[in-house]
Amino acid sequence: MILIKLGGSIITNKEKPLTANVPAIKQIASHLRKVKEQYMIVHGGGSFGHYWSIKYDMHTKPDRYSIKGVSVVKNSMVELNKLVLQSFLQSKLNPYCLPPTDFIFGNRAIIKKVKEISKIADAGLIPISYGDVMWFGKNKFYILSGDKIMGMLTRILKPRLAIFVTNVDGVYSNIKAKKLIYEITTEKPTITDVKMDVTGGMSRKIKEAMNMSKSGTNVFFVNGKTPQRIVNAINGKEFEGTIFRG
Ligand code: IPE
To answer: How far apart are alpha carbons 220 and 30 in whole angstroms?
Structure first.
């Protein structure tokens, strides 16, 4: 089993509210046709979910956020998810929509349900989940990032590989000089410039990746603008990117 997170930075145009980068999604999907192993997709919110979460001041902490905001964020994620599903279908793949509410209750993964996901993948479908606004109980909601979902799934499914696809080559030690870190073992890298969003941007991704690699999964960061790198990472070929060794 392989987990692939398609970051909002690659599947949407982050500078332009509510615009999906459909050509990028299709390009990735058509490359994924070469993958023969079972895999699952989790996608982010980019200029859909993050745009509205910021507008309505909604965060990862469970709270009594604007009901209108909850509704609008949820709808925007369903809309983006539909575009991802359509792109996969058009690339002759068989995606299977799996909202996080199908396997997460409150802020905890339902182990039994998560384990069924690998059976869905075994049946030949590509489960596709996404970062979302979640019901927490007691009139509270929270923003759940796709990165967090990746962490939860990794702990239960123990995939051999998890790949974070973004619009940059990997983790840079210096963003201005574009100095790429090829391999991260145990020490937390010092990252210079980090762009923030409601779920914590690159620094939260790194934190999640570090924890995932500690549980034994190899975690890769690759640039989705060159989707062959995703295929190469899966096939054990050399590629440009960052590895967190499990
Ligand atoms: C965000 O998911 C989901 C919402 C804002 C509803 P992510 O945090 O995984 O999104 P990206 O990949 O950073 O855009």
So the answer is: 20
Number of domains in the chain: 1
Distances (CA, A) of 168 to 71, 78, 92, 161, 237: 31, 25, 27, 19, 19
Cα(45) to centroid of ligand 1, in Å?
4
Q: What is the pLDDT of residues 30-75, one digit of tens each?
A: 999 999 999 999 999 999 999 999 999 999 999 999 999 999 999 9
Q: Taking a C-beta distance cutoff of 8 angstroms, is the pair 198, 53 a contact?
A: yes
Task: For ligand 1, say whether the CB of 7 is within 6 Å of any of its atoms.
Answer: yes
Residue 145 C-alpha to ligand 1 middle, in angstroms?
5
Has this prediction a pTM greater than 0.90? yes
**If DSSP codes are grouped into helix, strand and coil, which group holds residue 185?**
coil
CATH of the domain at 213: 3.40.1160.10
> For residue 49, what are the domain limits?
2-244
